[in-house]
Structure formats: C-alpha cells, structure tokens
Amino acid sequence: MHFTPNEVYHIYNRGNNRQIIFFNDANYIFFLKKIREEWREYGEIIAYCLMPNHFHLMMVPNEKACIHVSLGERLTHIQNLSKAIGKTLSSYTKAINIQNKTTGNLFQQKTKAKCLNENEADLHKFSVRDYALTCFHYIHQNPLLANLVKELSTWKYSSYPDYYGYRNGTLCNKNMAMELLNLSPLDFNKEPFSLDDTIIKGLF
C-alpha cells in the first residue's frame, strides 16, 4: 500500500481463503473500536462496511499518514497508515485465534488500497467524483448485494445508518463526505443509488 495525502482511497481485505473474520457482534464492535483508535489520526474515514468475511473502508489520508516509518536512522518503505492497518489486522487476528482456539492467518496477506483519483476515471471517461460516489454507495450496498439483509438500515456494521438518519455515529466525517461527493441531506432520501458495473471494476 502506498498513500498520498488528501486523495480518496478504497481500502479492503478479506478472510484468508475467504474464511469468516467476524463471528459475533462483539467481533464487529472490537474491530471498529480498533479502527477508531489506530486509524483516525491518519485521516478521515468517509464510509465503511464490515461483512462476515471481508471489509471495505473509504478514507482520505492526511500528511501524517504518508510519513515513512523510521527504523533507527533509516526510513523504511512503510508509511504510518500502512503500519497502523497492519497493526490492527495483526492484533485482531490474535484476538480471534484466542477466541476460537485456532492458529494462523485470518486475513489475506496484502490489504488493498485503491486510489480513486488515479487514471481509471480518465480511461473510462468517468469523472473522479463518479468513482468516489460509486465507491461510497457500493460500500453501503454490500449487505444487500450479498443478500444478508432486505433493508440496508438493518445492517449495523456499516456507516449507512449514520448517513441515512437511523443512527448518530461519529466514526465517519460526514461533512467531508458530503462536500467531497457533492451531496446534500436530500440525497439520502432518494431511491438506492444505481451502481455502474464498469465503474465498480475500477474500485478494485
């Protein structure tokens, strides 16, 4: 992963061999708590969704996130945000292995971070906002697309309830999201956003 300040990123990973990574309500809450404690100093979270075997976040890193970690007098290739993500997944894995009396890797080896401001938009003649807006709605619609719920408002482990008025969560910077995506409160009273498959491919 390599991050640039003030760009928009889709960050995601899944269970190793597509295995389950969240086994109960407490696991979801614990993971979100770690994100709040270990990621938020490195940027603004725009949207998130935790699924039984994977997770998605949309994030805008700050300058601090992109500073390379030093090892003595030598700078490494690892940035602060990348280190924080690795720390979260590692400590979460240890907790789950203790809970389930298991061993080994819980997540796929590499967490992906797709910059939505890159050339993908130019390649397909879509705007950067098209990609960011589609990513925002795609993340929120994941539980519906996976047939986990019939109403997105009932999936507790995403930022959807916060934007659509069902909950007053504070993990996401909602003001930044609305400015970045050129949204207003009225947009959250409309029918579900229609997802373009071509744009979705550019999110990964």
What does this structure look like?
It is a single chain. Helix content is 36%, strand content 18%. The strands form 2 sheets. It has a 4-stranded antiparallel β-sheet with strand order 2-3-1-6. The chain is built from 7 helices and 6 strands. The chain has helices at 25-38, 80-100, 120-123, 128-145, 160-163, 174-180, 197-201, and strands spanning 9-14, 43-51, 54-61, 68-71, 74-79, 112-115. It has one domain (9-201): Transposase IS200-like (Alpha-Beta Plaits). The protein has 204 residues and is an alpha+beta fold.
Into which percentage range does the β-strand content fall?
15-25%
Q: Shape, please?
A: globular
Contiguous runs where pLDDT drops below 50 for at least 5 residues: none
Distance between the termini: 13 Å
Report the helical percentage. Answer: 25-40%
- How can the largest sheet be summarized? 4 strands, antiparallel
Strand line-up across the major sheet? 2-3-1-6
* Number of DSSP strand runs: 6
CATH homologous superfamily title: Transposase IS200-like
- Averaging pLDDT over every residue, what do you get? 91
Please provide a brief summary of the model:
The chain is an alpha+beta fold and 204 residues long. It has helices at residues 25-38, 80-100, 120-123, 128-145, 160-163, 174-180, 197-201, and strands at residues 9-14, 43-51, 54-61, 68-71, 74-79, 112-115.
